């Protein structure tokens, strides 16, 4: 079978946002800034810096403005800084910092939508529509991410028709990109491909990105399955950090190091220096006092030490 893979893949490191939003310890703004600096030093060109959500719901993102202010001094023009925004209140707080991309985040599961952003799927689209319009009016890119595209912590399996429906609504309000997220990492390759196929009813493959958590150890296989369909952008998290406060039991995102190792091994470029990436993952893991969640990072560190 001959499969044609993209020559280059864009890695969106989401560790400063998804990676840290669920931490029980308070992560100082300076540590987040250092993580972002380390990622950029490793060659990461797109990252999720923070979310502009309610600090009562996600206290770890409460320093969103302070972080963006701190980053302003060293902001790189060739790096895209994305922020998550759930409503106009979040947009007004975020726009002061001129992010390169606004991420609106919906769900293919009604219950998860209620638990995560306190409204139904249709209500969320009503909230996102003015955000997308305001962002576009200011020349800022809009990406729509869909949570629970294969499984939901409350509803179980999700029908691909739900993914198609939310994709349609997000595209209608102006999403230029659609992220297919396996929030709790229950997906397997064919299920992920079915979710992607459903989204393709309303969006082009060039608009798609993948966001796979690794709870069941399937994230790298799911990444490959999406890659085989032509997806060329993936959300990943250095050291495999991550989790959603409203998806109990879900572990981190697929580790950036693991995806980069796989892609480079397949002859696909990312622009990322794996050794420097490992340093970034080690520094944040040490700060958090937890083992590095990347298999590749652990293997490279062990090799260096032997
Ligand atoms: C969406 C809301 C705000 C609705 O929350 P709500 O309580 O329904 O909102 P509200 O409009 O009724 O406002 C209530 C209070 O929150 C304030 N408020 C309202 N909006 C904002 C805002 N933007 N920024 C700051 N403050 C805000 C508002 O001003 C008010 O303040 P009060 O009068 O009580 O003092 C809330 O549910 C929320 O913040 N949820 C957090 C969602 C979240 O961050 N989840 C984790 C990220 S999603 C994820 O991880 C999945 C993803 C993307 O990674 C992909 C995947 O893996 O699936």
Automatic annotation (TrEMBL):
Q: According to its UniProt record, which reaction does this protein catalyse? A: (3S)-3-hydroxy-3-methylglutaryl-CoA = acetoacetate + acetyl-CoA
Q: What is this protein called?
A: hydroxymethylglutaryl-CoA lyase
Q: Which family does it belong to?
A: Belongs to the HMG-CoA lyase family.
This protein's pathway reads: Metabolic intermediate metabolism; (S)-3-hydroxy-3-methylglutaryl-CoA degradation; acetoacetate from (S)-3-hydroxy-3-methylglutaryl-CoA: step 1/1
**Domain Pyruvate carboxyltransferase: from-to ranges:** 9-278
Q: Which organism is it from?
A: Psychrobacter arcticus (strain DSM 17307 / VKM B-2377 / 273-4)
> Upper lineage ranks?
Bacteria, Pseudomonadati, Pseudomonadota, Gammaproteobacteria, Moraxellales
Q: Which UniProt keywords apply?
A: Lyase, Metal-binding
The EC category is lyase
